[in-house]
Design goal:
223 residues, alpha/beta, 16% strand
Length: 223
């Protein structure tokens, strides 16, 4: 309920992400205690949270746990997206550079991130690989074919999405085009969670209003 994304409140976003418990670190000066908000609003929020996170019937809880494990997520991450959107997560959006790196223009000399590649066969959902031209540069037809062939060689079913680069484009405009890409592939955005490791990934996931954002380091971490 309200926590499918990490909610930064400080302008220095990168610094907060490095200190955030969502990324494996405790905040400076934080003793791990509960929030000290004693206002009525705080009380009402805590009461609502308790109701929202009440243990569901055993059959429902087991079904959610099975779906979460299939996607490599914790029960809480899966349930938080369900409570926020009313939709079950079913697909992962993985920025391509976390899986492949190298000369994408020529399609040669691509290096595979063995750790991420080793997780893909365990994933039981729909896998969408996002090639962002803002990071890789323009990808012509030959480069896209080479990328598709390299991905197919991994032996894991995946769909390649290319997000073209536009000069002077805002984050909101990029998010709108990503939503259109997902809609064109028949992937409802609330059923898609994004994997990432930095502020740019988090910002794109939030602007696109995806079902959730999951730090890549936590993907399948508990399995």
């Amino acid at each position: 309920m309200g926590d499918r994304y990490f909610q930064p409140r400080h302008p220095n976003l990168e610094l907060l992400l490095r200190r955030s418990p969502d990324f494996g670190y405790a905040g400076i000066g934080h003793n791990g205690g509960p929030p000290l908000d004693m206002s009525f609003r705080g009380w009402a929020w805590r009461r609502s949270m308790q109701k929202a996170w009440a243990t569901p019937p055993r059959e429902i809880a087991l079904r959610r746990m099975a779906r979460a494990e299939k996607l490599g997520l914790s029960y809480r991450a899966y349930a938080a997206a369900l409570l926020d959107t009313g939709c079950h997560l079913s697909a992962a959006l993985l920025p391509l550079h976390y899986l492949l790196a190298g000369n994408l223009q020529a399609g040669a000399g691509l290096r595979v991130n063995e750790h991420v590649a080793g997780l893909l066969p365990r994933f039981g959902g729909r896998l969408l690989l996002l090639a962002d031209e803002a990071a890789f540069g323009p990808l012509d037809r030959a480069a896209r074919r080479a990328l598709a062939a390299r991905i197919a060689a991994l032996g894991v079913p995946a769909e390649l999405l290319v997000l073209p680069f536009r000069l002077h484009e805002t984050d909101g405009q990029r998010a709108t085009r990503l939503r259109r890409l997902l809609a064109g592939r028949g992937a409802p955005r609330h059923e898609v969670f994004m994997l990432g490791s930095n502020a740019a990934d988090l910002a794109l996931a939030r602007a696109t209003n995806l079902g959730s954002f999951v730090p890549l380091a936590r993907w399948f971490a508990g399995f």
